[in-house]
Amino acid sequence: MGDWAAGQILPDIPRFYTALAEWLACLLCMREVVRRYLGWKFAGVAAAAFAVQSVFLILTGGLDGPVWMVCMAAAVFLMFCFLRISCGASSLDVGYACVKAFVLAEFMASLEWQFHCFLYYGLGIKSPWVGGLLLMAVYGGTSLVIRGISGRYISETEQMNITGRELLFAAVIGLSVFLMSNIGFVYSNTPFSGGYASDIFNVRTLIDLGGLAILVAYHIQRLHLRVQHELESMEMILHNQYTQYQQSQETLDLINYKYHDLKHHIIALRAEENKEKREAYLDRMEDEIRSYEAQNKTGNKVLDTLLTAKSLYCMRSDITLTYVVDGARLDFMDVMDICSIFGNALDNAIECEKKIKEKEKRMIDVSVFVQQAFLIIRFENYCEGELAFEQNLPVTTKKQAEFHGYGLKSLRHTVHKYGGEVDIDVEDHWFRLKILIPI
């Protein structure tokens, strides 16, 4: 049969096929970012996007050279608009997904059309039914493979948090793949042009496949680095909480020494000749000390130390911290896990209260009790303003968000070790963090 494309000028990919590939690729890559619409509303947006993409590419068919390049750039912009409208993610996340979708679409369209031309010109099979089945097989098969690969590494509820540098790197790969794979069709006299049409098809398909593989490998490596960074951050937070506990224990010992010394001072003062006002002051002072001694006896020494340290800090920050805690119920938990749960929860609550200008509204309440077969740990604090949530956790408001927000993740990770769950909600300016652990 010889070279099936020798001496023939093969047609370019039909514009409708290209539009379909770009639309499908957007749907596949859309799984990696948080969706804004679901159900019928999303179906309407997707149908409108497919119609716009198809009409635009069909109307701009037949153009070549630089004008064709401009039209392809416009097609990519339409893909970006489809993703941006459909997804509640940042522009950087959407741009990153758009680059991957474009390279995937180029590969799908190129692979299908290479098979199509081989059947049509090489084997003489010119049935439109065969062409339709081939289109569904290649596009559908490629979609299933990509979905299977990406499904192991993506989260449909978590932001990708793409940086500008990562987007630029992906965009350079995408642009390079597009130029290298299509330059043989636009210009015949280049180092990347083939002598036969089949050569150009091979070059285009293989370059698209290579570019797609690079982007997928880069994305997987990026996710691995991100998970490693999160684990290291949570481990550091846990270690810091335990270190704070040790320091608090030393502080508490010092306070106890001072407490006993103070009682001796009171005895000595009473032995002296005192006025009624001083006597009343000493009585009040002794009552406060007795109250202070009682409020830190929860039944768990680790929790006593933590609450004492946090109470002292709250007093210095004009924050009212109250708690009703049955600390004996925590005896089954590891010391570092207690530090992680109570340390992270109270640190977040204190940080929130410090932002409130009216000091009388700075309130934190902690309770630990058993109800039925569950240990319930509840933290409540007054808050102002609206909170955004991601994966049922409040989104950090700090700058450089990729380096913050691990405190509650560490808390949730610790709770899951005991088969428990964490529930967070905000109602009537009260932030509530509730932990349920089966016992």
Task: Give structural notes.
The protein is an alpha+beta fold. 64% of the residues lie in helices and 10% in strands. It has 11 helices and 7 strands. The protein has helices at 15-29, 39-59, 65-86, 91-122, 128-151, 164-186, 197-271, 276-295, 301-316, 335-354, 406-417; strands spanning 320-325, 363-371, 374-382, 389-390, 393-394, 421-427, 430-438. The strands form 2 sheets. A 5-stranded mixed beta sheet has the order 1-2-3-7-6, with helices on one face. β6 (421-427) and β7 (430-438) form a beta hairpin. The protein starts with 14 loop residues before the first helix and ends with a strand. The model is unreliable at 189-196 and 399-404 (pLDDT under 50).
Mean pLDDT: 77
The number of distinct helices, counting runs of at least 4 residues, comes to: 11
Helix-strand string: HHHHHHHHHEHEEEEHEE
Overall spatial form: elongated
Q: What class do helices, strands and sheet pairing give?
A: alpha+beta
Low-confidence stretches: 189-196, 399-404
Order of strands side by side in the largest beta sheet? 1-2-3-7-6
Task: State the separation between the terminal residues, measured CA to CA.
Answer: 75 Å
DSSP strand count: 7
Question: What is the gyration radius calculated from CA atoms?
Answer: 33 Å
Percent helix among the residues? 55-70%
